[in-house]
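User: What would this chain look like folded?
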Amino acid sequence: MSGGSVERVRAALAAAGHPDTIQAFPEGTRSAADAAAAVGCDVAQIAKSIIFRAGGQAVLVITSGANRVDMGKVAAATAFHVKRADGGWVRDVTGFAIGGVAPIAHLTPPVVLVDEDLFALGRIWAAAGSPMHVFETTAEALLRMSGGRRADVKEVA
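Assistant: Here's the prediction, encoded as C-alpha cells.
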C-alpha cells in the first residue's frame, strides 16, 4: 500500500509543478518528533496532516509539528461539527494510513486548513504517503497544492 501511496504523492507533486523532494527514512517518520530527527530539522518544521471527520466529509488540518490542534477553532473555521477520525476511516477516505497521511493526493478531496504558524518557517517537511517518506516544501506551496486556506488552528495552553 505505501508504494502506491508514495507514487500517488509523487504524481501529485509533478502535476503541481513541484520538485520531487520525496526522501525515504527506513527508521521511520511516523511522528513529528521521528520525522524531525530523521530529516535533521526542528519539530516545528514538520507539517503534520491530521484528519478530522465532519459526518462523511474529511477535514484535513496541516499543522506545525510543534502544535496541538484546537478542534473548536477547526469547527469555527469550517462551520462543521468535527470529531477525531479512526484509522480505518482515514485510510478508506484518504488512501493513507495514519502516520503517513500526506497533505495532498487524497482519494477523496478534503476540506483543508493550513496552520498559520507554518508560514513563518522557510522549509518544511510533510508526510509523503507512508510512515517512512517525507517531502520538502513550503507552506505557500502546500496551500496552493492542497487548495486549502490559512487558519489559526493552534491550541493555546
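The chain has a mean pLDDT of 95. If you want, I can go into more detail on any region.
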